[in-house]
Amino acid sequence: MSGYTDATERAILDHTFTDPAWVPASTLYLGLSSTTPTDAGANFTEPSTGAYARVSTTAADWDPATGTAPVTKTNSAVKTFPTATGDWLSGVDLTHFGLFEALTGGAPIVCGPLTTPKPVLSADTATCGVGALVIKLGDPADGF
Q1: Contact assessment for residue 100 and residue 106, using Cβ atoms and an 8 Å cutoff
Q2: pLDDT digits (tens, 9 = 90+) for 20-47
Q3: Is 94 helix (H, G, I), strand (E, B) or coil?
Q4: How many CB atoms lie within 10 A of CB 104?
Q5: Quick one: which of 2, 136, 130 has its CA closest to 57?
Q6: pTM of the full predicted structure?
């Protein structure tokens, strides 16, 4: 899956129909997961040791959306995590990314697979290069 979680899809639809209750965050936080998140935003397993922390991202870090069925949005800025002071998740591959509305806690609002899954070991610095994060909307294969 690459795209919005169910809760975000509902908020987008409500917003489309002039529901003023949903206001997008001006800053989102990029997190990494070793498990495949569900469409409900569950099953997102972040590292909890080795100086892991989510990194902030704003609209300026992303290219305009392009394409059709699906429409895609990719990062236009390199996103760099803190240097690991120990192995993240005991060397297990990190396979997915998620964007959150908070620096800690909560469920991701959007998730996607990393272009290159890999472990982050002590002294590594995880980096997501330009174009490495892809978000899709309206993907026919999404099963909606």
Answers
A1: yes
A2: 766 778 999 999 999 999 988 899 999 9
A3: strand
A4: 10
A5: 130
A6: 0.87
